[in-house]
Amino acid sequence: MDALPELDDVLARAHVVRVPLSTRFRGVDEREAVLLDGPVAWSEFAPFPEYDDDEAATWLAAALEFGWQALPGEQRRASTPVNATLPAVAPQHVAEVLSRFGECRTVKIKVAERGQSLADDVARVAEVRRLLGPVARVRLDANGAWNVDEAEHAVRALEQFDLEYVEQPCATVPELAELRRRIHRLDVAVAADESVRRAADPLAVARAGAADVLVIKVAPLGGVRRALEIVAEAGLPAVVSSALDTSVGLAMGAALAARLPELAFDCGLGTAALLADDVVAPPLRPLDGAIAVGAVTPDADALRRLAAPDDRAHWWRERLSRAWQVLEQRV
User: Which of 12, 77, 266, 301 could be disulfide-bonded to 81 (CB atoms 3.0-4.6 Å)?
Assistant: First the structure.
């Protein structure tokens, strides 16, 4: 941003919420977020609790851009095709979780969950393929949990299920490049997520030839404008994904997806289906495999119902203030 809004104004527009999940995901049962009633649009500030102030500041930049500025570029689409997202559940729970997403043609399956084995992953992926048949598109997400040998072994065990791609199978760019070299004959693409959104240089993965697809997220990259620049410079197809957002954050992701020149893959923006409640009525859930593009406004009753406890609201407001101070030094 060229100029920051005043901190007092930002805080005056802040609503801290705690939203329950219907299924444990990413190790949590609830998602906390700060919703900002910006003069242009509602936006969301929700960096994960373990992120430091410098990283949180980038998320705040995205929220302030979306809430206080006109969006860059041309909106090319009125809706965004999305995938279903399947947490690392046991096979007997797969059908129930997927039913919340409706008629999505693509499923992203979490694998390499701590405390689980490759056999658990194989059983979960096999159940998805059994339920959805040969037409469905299946992609995996390991969140960087495997080393190169483990990833190669896992991909060879799972490629029988006709994988679209495997997302962040290893943690580092050199590991991704080596894995991509090893599995190129298997026709399984490699997608990079953390190596883009948490990297000091988000373009390093493209320069190294370490990925076939970029997974991009509005908040961790600092906003729609910066995300569009990264995709353009990388020259790789992109998937827009969420960070377990409320419907406000998902609307930010949909705005980015609608502005990409090309959108070859279904996006990971259907995750409102994983929430047991939401701040928008009705929630921005998939309908016929897509979500609408456009501004959303939280429901006043939901903001009251989902308001975070006072101690957590104070924690988030203090965190937002520190992130604002980091941004002030960057401007």
Answer: 266
